[in-house]
């Protein structure tokens, strides 16, 4: 799976996510262009600063970064040439992200941040998400990190992460009006 395929998988998985619905507005084509631009930039950042893990058979993707480069800062140059509606979406998204980033920055120590996780709809429920989480935990342990952290806005995802050993460390209402949940898992 190349980066474009990863970006498309992430875009299809997150197009109905509450945060992405709030941030990326407009026609379906505009929303998808903006979301895809976001994931392209995020994956590029993870290539240089973190890790990207692919599930067997390209069934899913997970990207994480070490806490030393958290919160992530996407190079503004990546936005050059994007239409105004994409720039506006990124501004809404980044304003929202200040809340979970502040929560994690205040609580986490020696950690890996799971930034992106998606499993192809056709193979959900077959253990690929857990495999990706376990693989990221192993990589983080090997890097000498002691915790995994992530944030979500989709309450429906809480059960999946709790079943994988994560606990809700904090929750708060962000500027978007959405509740953000910050989850952690010890690697000890």
TrEMBL record:
Record's signal peptide: none
Record-linked Gene3D superfamilies: 3.40.630.30
Pfam families linked to this entry: Acetyltransf_1
Domain N-acetyltransferase as annotated: residue spans: 110-188
Domain of life from the UniProt record: Bacteria
The protein's name in its UniProt record: GNAT family N-acetyltransferase
Organism: Flavihumibacter fluminis
Lineage: Bacteria, Pseudomonadati, Bacteroidota, Chitinophagia, Chitinophagales
